[in-house]
Design brief:
The chain is of the alpha/beta class. The chain folds into two domains: 57 residues, no CATH class; 280 residues, Metallo-beta-lactamase, Chain A (4-Layer Sandwich). It has twelve helices and 14 strands. The strands form two sheets. A seven-stranded mixed β-sheet has the order 6-5-4-3-2-1-14. Strands 7-8-9-10-11-12-13 form a seven-stranded mixed β-sheet, with helices on one face. It starts with a helix and ends with a strand.
């Protein structure tokens, strides 16, 4: 039914056809549930040390705060290969048990998003390291899937500026979702006031550097930083997510030509490093990705508290266990090898 009405129904008609969007009923259920919960005595809160009363919740996060209430879940740990048995790159940053930041949206990640139990309503921003399909192909799938959610807050999407090889992020989204785009039936999400929320794209300048990174604050608890990195001819970014006193750095795909990753991730609670090649590949691959020797050096120099090896490809997987062990020996942080849906808690130990 839905496939036949996508180009013919008006916005108001769409609403009549989705009972899951009955917000009046939903609000009534939420109000009833909240009233029932609040009817319990305050003793119920004091008996559970993991539950904070509103008075004890801080308004702002400061650097002095211990990292708490944040985890990072792997939606996709692979690259663009068809037979590697992995979903393409994507991650969720959970904050206080809500999925808040989606980092990359590689092929298949929208399916894993559903498997994670996350709610798209809760996502406060989507950040893209670059626009290769194994990092950005599922953006339209997330937008289409949001039709069946209660999302009504605008969606910021951040990604790199373009060059003569790749479009900038704003153009990429317009080409996919705009009025004349490949998925033009979703264009209402790109136009102010025409659907339940509006996509807000931002193209991050390729001049973003250690000295002058791109920064944006999403709210009192969560902020983002981006650093331009070298990924051959492809514009690319490394991302840092700050939340509840925690810092998570995602290297994205890069060969770290400028040697900036270790400094950008200094002392991070989690550093996600992409392990796509081995040490013996040719120069073309080394112009795109970091070698295992580089990963060991960056993990050591950054002094990150945890290291997650991801973007595993068939050529790099045979050496994954040895790389994990080598980093464990020389770097101070605990080391993980990514698999789909693993969720790493970052609370200070």
């Amino acid at each position: 039914m839905h496939a036949h009405r996508i180009t013919t129904q008006s916005h108001s008609q769409k609403r009549l056809c989705r009972p899951q969007r009955n917000r009046a009923l939903n609000n009534l259920l939420v109000t009833t549930l909240c009233s029932a919960v609040l009817s319990f005595s305050s003793v119920a809160y004091s008996e559970n040390s993991d539950v904070r009363t509103p008075e004890s919740t801080p308004n702002k996060v400061t650097k002095a705060q211990a990292c708490h209430g944040v985890s990072v879940q792997v939606l996709g740990s692979g690259g663009p290969e068809l037979d590697d048995g992995r979903t393409s790159s994507a991650y969720i940053v959970w904050v206080d048990d809500s999925a808040r930041i989606l980092v990359d949206a590689g092929s298949g990640s929208s399916v894993q998003f559903g498997a994670s139990g996350a709610l798209f309503d809760d996502i406060q921003a989507m950040v893209l390291s670059h626009l290769h399909t194994d990092h950005a192909a599922d953006v339209p799938s997330f937008v289409k899937g949001s039709f069946f959610t209660f999302r009504n807050n605008d969606l910021p999407i951040f990604g790199p500026q373009g060059n003569d090889v790749m479009p900038d992020t704003s153009t990429y989204l317009k080409t996919l979702l705009g009025s004349h785009g490949a998925y033009r039936y979703l264009s209402s999400y790109t136009k102010e006031g025409q659907d339940d929320y509006t996509i807000r794209p931002t193209s991050v300048s390729l001049s973003a550097s250690l000295q002058s990174p791109f920064t944006v604050s999403l709210n009192d608890a969560i902020s983002l930083e981006a650093l331009s990195v070298h990924h051959g001819p492809i514009p690319a970014l490394a991302w840092k997510v700050k939340a509840n006193g925690c810092e998570v750095v995602f290297s994205g795909d890069t060969n770290d030509k400028a040697n900036t990753l270790a400094e950008f991730s200094k002392g991070a609670d989690l550093l996600v490093l992409h392990n796509a090649i081995d040490d013996n590949v040719g120069e073309v691959a080394k112009n795109l990705h970091m070698t295992p020797k580089q990963l060991i050096a960056i993990a050591t120099q950054s002094k990150a508290k945890r290291i997650l090896l991801s973007h595993i490809m068939k050529r790099s997987e045979p050496g994954l266990a040895a790389l994990n062990e080598a980093i464990t020996v020389v770097a101070p942080g605990r080391v993980y090898s990514a698999v789909e849906l693993m969720n790493i808690t970052l609370d200070q130990e």
